[in-house]
Amino acid sequence: MDSITNTKRKVYRFGHRQTDGDRTMRNLLGGKGANLAEMSRLGIPVPPGLTITTEVCTEYNAIGKEATVELIAEEVREAIKQIEAEMDTVFGEDKNPLLLSVRSGARVSMPGMMDTVLNLGLNDVSVLGVAKKTNNERFAWDSYRRFVQMYGSVVMGMKPENKEDEDPFEEQIHQTKEARGISLDTEFTVEDLKNLVVDFKKLIKERTGQDFPTDPWEQLWGAIMAVFDSWNGDRAVYYRKINGYPPDWGTAVNVQAMVFGNMGENSATGVCFTRDAATGANQFNGEYLINAQGEDVVAGVRTPQQITLEGSKHWAELAKLSEKERAAKYPSLQEVMPKLYQELFRYQNQLEIHYRDMQDMEFTIQDGKLWILQTRNGKRTGAAMVKIAVDLLKEGMIDEKEALLQILPEKLDELLHPVFDPRALKRAKVIAQGLPASPGAATGQIVFFADEANKFKNSILVRTETSPEDLEGMDLAKGILTARGGMTSHAAVVARGMGKCCVSGAGALKINYKKRTMTVDGHEYHEGDWISLNGTTGNIIDGKVATMEPLLSGEFAEIMTLADKYATMKVRANADTPKDAKTARNFGAQGIGLARTEHMFFEGNRIMTMREMILADTIKGRKLALEALLPMQRNDFEGLFEALHGHPVTIRLLDPPLHEFVPHQLATQKELAEDLHISLAAVKNKVAELHEFNPMLGHRGCRLGITYPEITEMQTRAIIEAALNVKEKGIEVKPEIMVPLVGTLEEFESQEEVIKQTAETVFQEYGDRVDYLIGTMIEVPRAALMADAIAQRADFFSFGTNDLTQMTFGYSRDDAGKFMSYYLEKGILKADPFEVLDQEGVGQLVALGAKKGRSTKPDLKVGICGEHGGEPSSVEFCHDNGLDYVSCSPFRVPIARVAAAQAAL
Ligand code: PEP
Ligand code: MG
Question: Is the pTM of this model over 0.70?
Answer without folding.
Answer: yes
